[in-house]
Amino acid sequence: MSYVKYEQNGFIGTITIDREKALNALNSEVLNDLEAVIDSISIETTRCVIITGAGQKSFVAGADIGEMCNKTRAEAQAFSARGNAVFRKIEKLPVPVIAAVNGFALGGGCELSLSCDIRIASENALFGQPEAGLAIVAGFGGTQRLARTIGVGKAKEMLYTCSKVKADEALRIGLVNAVYPSDQLMAECEKLAGKIAANAPIAVRATKKAINLGLQTDIETGVQIEAEMHASCFGTEDQKNAMTAFLEKRKPEPFIN
Ligand code: HXC
Q1: The ligand 1 atom nearest the CA atom of 83
Q2: What span is annotated as the signal peptide, if there is one (predicted)?
């Protein structure tokens, strides 16, 4: 039995964290299952991935507090490294990943959403980094990605105060791109994924790489990375197809790369 389900619908893959009785909290087994699913995704056939939580109430309510409670310092470090390794795989997945945040996104849940490219929330979504209240520091990337996503001041406020952020506030501070009623969340995420999947996959993948690598470096190196990614698309069938179609005033053939 796996705590993580995977469904493929056309070019779109949907990952569901399914440990509903614990509000999809991440224990070691869930992390292992999540990694196995991520590793199994085929870039040949998948152009966008959606990650969500099972049920109506929770995306992921954090790392499993029961599992963490009696950890030694070394065990805690290993658990943090384990989660970070899995979340980096998500961040580095060549195709875009959308977090469909369908409820609680607390601690490791907020951090999981931050490792995705885009966050879309349901109206009942609730974000937060409650770690300081549990007398620990965030351990799955929260101190790093939250600041990069919503800015240092807001991130520090969330991390120092442990205040919860509702969906409308998350939208206002740029933590999510859009908010929808719960019953429309998945359809809207699939629509967004479909728009991504309709563009040339080689270009979308190279764009993700350029943005992510560029964010880790200075602007001089960043624009060089972009130039390299830009050039890498030339000579591909999709590029010839798309540009020729424009010049011939017609729609391109479906993209293939
Ligand atoms: C383990 C959890 C859990 C968690 C919920 N559950 N969150 N178990 N770890 N993070 C379990 C509860 O124990 C309970 O199990 C069941 O899920 C339902 O939860 P309730 O509390 O009864 O639900 P509710 O009253 O609706 O409250 C929902 C909630 C609350 C507000 C989300 O569960 C909560 O505060 N959870 C903890 C959130 C949190 O602090 N997350 C950050 C963890 S630290 P039973 O068996 O009683 O039914 C973290 C660090 C990441 O994430 C980095 C690590 C390296």
Answers
A1: 55
A2: none
Q: Is the pLDDT of residue 175 over 90?
A: yes
- Active site residue: 29, 111, 237, 248, which one? 111
What pLDDT does 98 receive? 99
Catalytic residue (choose from 29, 44, 67, 131)? 131
Q: Which atom of ligand 1 is nearest to the CA of 80?
A: 55
Whole-complex ipTM: 0.99
Distance CA 95, CA 48 (A): 6
Per-residue pLDDT averaged across 237-241, rounded? 96
Cβ atoms of 104 and 60 closer than 8 Å:
yes
User: Which residue's alpha carbon is at the smallest distance from atom 47 of ligand 1?
Assistant: 22
Cβ neighbourhood burial of 7 (10 Å; 0-12, 13-18, 19+): exposed
Domain with CATH 1.10.12.10 in the chain: 201-247
The Cα 203–Cα 21 span in angstroms is 40
Name the segment(s) of the chain with CATH classification 3.90.226.10. Answer: 4-197
Strand partners, 8: 13
